[in-house]
Amino acid sequence: MSVLSDLEARSGSTCELCTGTNNLEVFEVEPVSISGVDSSILACQTCRTQIEDAEQMDANHWRCLNDSMWSEYDSVKVVVWRMLSRLKSEGWPKDLLDMMYLEPEVLEWAKATGEGVAEADKIIHRDVNGVILENGDSVVLIKDLKIKGSSQVAKQGTAVRRISLDRENAEYIEGKVGPTLTVIITKYVKKI
Prior knowledge:
- InterPro entries: PhnaA_N_proteobac, YjdM_C.
- The chain has two domains: 3-111, no CATH class; 123-191, SH3 type barrels, CATH 2.30.30.
- By secondary structure, the protein is α+β, with helices and mostly antiparallel strands.
- The strands form four sheets. Strands 6-3-10 form a three-stranded antiparallel sheet, with no helix packed on it.
- It has helices at residues 3-11, 45-52, 65-68, 74-87, 92-99, 104-111, and strands at 25-28, 40-43, 139-141, 145-146, 153-154, 159-160, 164-165, 172-177, 180-185, 189-191.
């Protein structure tokens, strides 16, 4: 079975956030360490648009989180926590956040994108030119780099796709150079 059909079976062919039934698609919950049902939700176009673009946010649409916050699936709870954190200035989401409980590893996953962290406390990753890097971006190496723990050398000009950001250090990102997942220092990359 495909991820889409598994999610449709799990959710009864409704959006796992608002129970809408129009334009349902798989939404991968960042950061994706393993793809599949456990790291995805089935979401309608309205929810997906507002998750991806904060300027499209309609706070009243998200009152549905009052029900979906009790989902048994971690990926759904992560998205609910992130949306409630994003909306907590509205007042009512703060009450729902206070009621919500996430296991420590699920809470860590929810916080991985920086939601719920004050702007002043967020770690910002920048490439050699000062351009802000985000999870999932692609970068190119600006110099040859020896890959620690192997004899491999990543050549200048090598593209590294779908990077992950280190949440504790603004100078580190992770990405695959060939088959090897490695840590790369941001001053040696340029965003593509």
